[in-house]
Request: fold
Amino acid sequence: MITKSKIYKYLAFTLIFSSVFGIVVYSFLSNRHQAIIKTKLLYTFGLIDNEWRIEKKNQEYKMVSPTFLIDGIYKSMEGPKSSRYVQLSQDDDLLWITGFEVEAIDAKTNTSISKDFICHMNVDINDINYYTNWHLEDRIGKQYPRLTSLSNGFEKYSYPEGFGIPIKGNDYLYITSQALNHNYVSIFKKIKHEVTITYQKYDGSQKPLLSKTVFIQLPYNKNNPFEGPLNAGSNQCIPVETKNHSYMDKEGNMLSGHWVVPKGKNSYHSNINEQLDLTDSLRLHFAAIHVHPFATSIALYDKKENKVLFKSAISNYKDKTGLIEVTPFSSKEGIWLYKNHDYELLLEVNNTSETNQDMMGSMFLFFYDQELDEKIKQ
Reply:
C-alpha cells in the first residue's frame, strides 16, 4: 500500500519536475512567444486586469484594452497584445466609419503616455458576413480580411471628407492591439491602449471605400533562409522567421514580408499586381501606411509610366528607436490605377543603429467602390 507520505513525495517531485521542465522550455522560446504565455498567465490568475472597457458616445466608439505589462524590450510584433470583437451598435442601421485612433495610456492614472508603447492596432472584418450583406459574394476570400492598421508613428487618421467605410451597426469588427518597447531596458510598467472608431450615420451623400492590402515580399533562400550576408542590391532578404509572414509564389520561390535589414542605407521593391488584383480601373483616395523604425520613405510606383504616384515621407527619432511620423496619402480627387499597368512598392531604409533590425512595408489602399455605392443606393 502506498502511504500518504509517498503520495506527497510523488506529487512534489512531479510538480518540481514539471516546473523545471516548463522553465527550460520557456527560456528557449522567442520573445514573442514568451510574451503570449506570460500575458495569458497574468490574465488567468487575475494578476493584471484582463477586461476591455467600452465607452460609446455620439459618433464615437471608444474601447480601452486590458492591461499590458511592459517588463523588458519588445520589438515590433513581440509585445503583449489583446483582441476582441466589437459592434458599433445593436441594430442594422447603415453607418459610415470615418477614422481610427490608438493611444497609449497609463494603466493606473488613465493619462496619455509616450507612443513608444504602441506597436500596432489592427482592424479585421468578417468578409463572409460583410460582403454577403451587400450581395457581393464574389469578393469573399479574395484577400486577407484586414481592413486597416495603425502603428508606431501612424496612430491616427481620418478618410477624406465625404468618404468612409460603410458597415451595418451590428456587424462585427475584430480589434487587436499590441504593445511595443524598443528603448527602455529596465522597466516594469503597466499600460493600456485606448482605441477610438469615429463614424456617422448614412445620409445618402457619403461615398464607400474598398480596402486592398499590399505589402513588400522579398525572396529568400528556402534551403538556407538565415544565411548571410546577401549581395548588395539583390533585393533578396533574410526573413525574421519562416513560420509567419512567409509566402510561396507561383514558381515555388519563398518570399517574406518580415525581414532583417543590416546597418546603413538600403532600398527594397516588390511587385504588387497580384495583391491589387485590378479587374478594372480604380480611383485611389487614401493610403494607410505600415512600416517599422528605420524606414525613411515608402512609395507607390507605376512601372509602366515610370512614375511615383505618391511617396510617404517617414521621420525617425535620432536619440532613440521609433517613428515620429508616417505620412499617409489622402485625396478627395483621387488618383487612378489601371488594370493593365505594373505597380510596385518602393521602400527606403536607413538603419542607423549598431545591429540588424526587422522591417516591413505595407499599405492599406482605399479606392472608391462604385459597385458597392450603386448597391447601397438601391
Summary: The chain has a mean pLDDT of 92. DSSP finds five helices and 25 strands in the chain. Residues 71 and 187 are 5 Å apart (CA to CA).
